[in-house]
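Researcher: Last one for today. Full complex below.
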Amino acid sequence: MNPVNYLYLAGLLFTIGATGVLIRRNAIVVFMCVELMLNACNLAFVTFSRLHGNLDGQVIAFFTMVVAAAEVVVGLAIIVSLFRARHSASVDDASLMKL
Amino acid sequence: MEKLIALLIAAPLLGAAVLLLGGRRLDRVGHWIGTLLSTASFVFGLVLFTDLLGRNAEHRTLIQHLWTWIPVEGFQADVTFRLDQLSMTFVLLITGVGSLIHLYSVGYMEHDERRRRFFGYLNLFLAAMLLLVLADNYLLLYVGWEGVGLASYLLIGFWQHKPSAATAAKKAFLVNRVGDMGLSIAIMLMFTTFGSFAFGPVFGHVDGASQGKLTAIGLMLLLAACGKSAQVPLQSWLGDAMEGPTPVSALIHAATMVTAGVYLIVRSAAVFDAAPDAQLAVTVVGAVTLLFGAIVGCAKDDIKKALAGSTMSQIGYMVLAAGLGPIGYVFAIMHLVTHGFFKAGLFLGAGSVMHGMNDEVDMRRYGGLRKYMPVTFVTFGLGYLAIIGFPGLSGFFSKDKIIEAAFAKGGTEGWILGGAALVGAAITAFYMTRVMLMTFFGEERWKNQATRSPEAPSAEPAAEHRGETAEPHPHESPKVMTIPMIVLAVGSVFGGGFFSIGDRFLYWLEPVTGHSEGHSPVSAGEVTAATMVCLVIGVAVAWAQYGRKPVPAVAPRGSLLTRAARRDLLQDDFNHVVLVRGGEHLTRSLVYLDHTLVDGVVNGTAAGFGGLSGRLRRLQNGFARSYAVSMFGGAALLVAATLLMRAV
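Model: Here's the assembly. Have a good evening.
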């Protein structure tokens, strides 16, 4: 199977993730879409690693997973405390940081 | 001997310091201190003069170096005095005539409670003028020059409670500032051209400088001279300066101040000789002023203002002569000295008349005073004969020489300048005869005039202080006033003859200024004859107008020229329209420009940025998703740019 197809898949996943981030209001869904984009990147890294025949891409993919795991911890904590404060998980409700 | 030079200045300067700082406890003796120190300066002058006379003509320059004022690499300013024949002449004139005026002021200012201060200012005036003529470089000369300006301001505005006097003082100071600016520019030009402003280096290197620079220096010096010597176009302060006490007018017109300009031109002879264009400008200024002053003098009914016009005209003669170059320098100074005698005498005489007439200055309210003030009449009369150039008296010798020198300039210029000088002589004879006839002859117009007519010029304020009645009782002035007048009258009679016979003055001054005869198209005898004819015409016309028929007590309307001359030939109107109005328009348009253009640019920039930031602020809406869009857009742009760069 042509590895380039994995790249198309990565692109598709990234686009779905990015669109989700931009158009969804629910913080949890936005968060999941961010994860989707990260994993799309991971897939691209691994594919390139395979294409070029060195392991750098696979190493980076592991890094990404670790960082994403840490990010999930912090991100979910923020979302939970936001929900507690405002009784809503909508990202548009948290719009006080403006002039 | 050199050590004495500083004392010449120190004596009056000490007087000024003591009198002005001493306070009221000196009120009773202050005037005598002032007179004594001024006379002391005169005595020092005489000692130095005899010393100079005992030397050879080549060794008559004394230099006294006191200290180095500004010792900077490449910029050396010294406090050094130079006493040569030219400065010696001025020193004797300034201290001699100045001391006589001091003596006269003792009587004239007797009832003024600020007499001590007045004498302090007089001494300051003398000290500044002496510094001016003794300086060995232009920078030190400038110090004296400014000192003279300051002292004249203080003295013209001495009766400062009168608004007119305060204004006149301000006017004199401001007009003089214009001239001072010329002098300071000239000094700067000298420094950039010659690397020095001391007399020696400047005059020694004139040959190496370009014609344009020399002409610029000459014209700037001329501007300076115009300011101090009241020459057209900076003449307007002189008439108003009559607001000062009469001795001040005498001092300004005879010994100090107005002579400074002539001194400056003659002292800078080397520069002017090398710049013919500047010289021509000097002669033109002199010729125009001598006619201008004379015409103004004809129309004035105020005795002091008539004399002021006359001074302007006579200084015009001197400037004309100084502009003629080596043909005229000596005669300019000679006329300056003789003029110092008779003009001081005339002013002191006028002061004496005012003293006896309740400070009335309108000649139409004089008349027939010769019976009441015989000494004043005789001394004033001798001064009058001297100024019109009556044969044998001072003015005859000095003015005649100037007219000869003007013709000797040669060519068309010579004819024009000589002609102007001759016409000036005729007008001089006319207006001085007019003053003489209106004051001392004719009917006694001051009688039965208990009430002043409203249009009469306001009298000096001392009259109210003395509480005298409106009807004057003319009387001779005290001895302390008449003695200086007598001395000056003697000088006016014999001075010119003493200087001219055997060409004494010429030989005395020639080593400093140089002298050449020129090529006169007319002989000396013919010039003298023409001058005499002009003199007779002037006197005859004045007699026909003011001697034969009675003088009306209220001035008739007069011709257009008379009315213009009464307004000083519209000099103030000209200044008002051109300078004051012009200045107002200029400042107004500048303010307008400032408001619209400068403020417009500044405010516009600020408003533009304000509006821009207002719009940019909208982007900061607080919605995390819109920030995500911008990030996404930015990242997309970066990727697109990278791809584009790759493709290229």
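The mean pLDDT of chain A is 90. Chain A touches chain B through 14 residues (CB under 8 Å).
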